[in-house]
Amino acid sequence: MTDHDVAQDPDERRLSTREAADRLGVKPETVYAYVSRGQLTSRREPGGRGSTFDAKEVDALARRGGRREPSGAGSELAVRTGITLIDRDHCYFRGVDTSELAAHHSYEEVAEWLWTGEMRRGIRFTAPHDALAAARRAVDALPAHTGPMDRLQVAVIAAAAADPLRFDLSERAVLDTARSLIPTLVAALPRRTAGRPPGRAGAEGAGAGRVGAGRGGDGRGAYGEGGGEPGGAEPGAAEEPASELGSEDGPLAPRLWSRLTSEPADPPSLRVLDAALVLLIDHDLAASTLAVRVAASARAHPYAIISAGFGALDGALHGAASGLAHRMLLEVLDRGSAAAVVADHLRAGRRVPGLGHPLYSGEDPRARALFALLEDVPRARPALQAARDVITTTARHKEWHANVDLALAVLTIATGMPAEAGETVFAVARTAGWIAHALEEYDEPPLRMRPRGQYSGPRPPQPLP
Length: 465
What we know:
Shape: globular
Number of helices: 18
Distance between the termini: 47 Å
Order of helices and strands: EHHEEHEEEHHHHHEEHHHHHHHHHH
């Protein structure tokens, strides 16, 4: 009997290596890699020369996402997921168009629905006292020039240290962690006060003014209060009393607003920010999401998987892309010409920021949704026109379309946010998606995210150095 023959068993159907490989859509050597990692069991039949495999076990591995080859030239790692589908220039969460979700539901509602399948109208996420106190103390100790991504990374580690139950990976525990970690990350960021850059966490002051929020009849955040500039104590003020640390409530978008800008919040701008949070929750297996799934495959706790996501997101080609678009639009507004700015980028051999996306042949649907909402924000008109000028200028020569980074740049410029604010929005929003992916991965066999390296070094034996 050869390795390609079917080994017959009177009690069960056995597959040859070739048949198992065909069912999994991989090469025969990959089947043996699954065996070495404990994902498949093989058996040699009496008198047979090849291994055989249980058909049910092979089919179960295929359903879990086993159809993937070790990475190499032209190959892709494929992981089965029921979270996000990108198809025909549309993005869907569990089959629902993300633009529709952003139009009718708040960030917290969509996150909860993505995790549990239940749409809980008006749900609010609250930061627990111990985690928030630890995160604020850690962030407070950082140098004044520290950027928001560094603050977020420190905050998540501090929150983890304050949670002795973080190693409980049951679904209920992970969900409780998610609902508390996201508001902790937001509340750990210092408020922005007019005329002063963000300072120490203690400078926020107890009882600082917050942007209020009501709820509309459709379940979407109907942000009815103007908010104004948040109050705050002078630098060096005492840390907030313990009773105030977890007191922030209301929708997440107004809470995040005060960490991004000192300008007053208006309902249309808050709607754009909340929609951006929804639209950025997930986007298939981006680099940071893959990092999260690798960590979850090793059974890292939720705080650790978020740290893994932040690490990958911190790259200039991922989360920081909106900052490049922000600076480009400021230059367009300053020079009064998109053509000159675009020409400078092309002359330097740089891609024009905020344009093009490998997953979309046309306009990024997230950008399309945000641009439509920005039309209702009067102060966004100059930046919106600058973005249109960039798109029009490049369209003469390149078939590039706007992506979500360009829309985020319009929002951040219009509302007086710094260039890195888009990355902060991205990081906070994507945390919910990373939790959803972690929940999926925790249900998979552990350590399955283990590609094989293709050694390209000198062949042994080599002389001792």
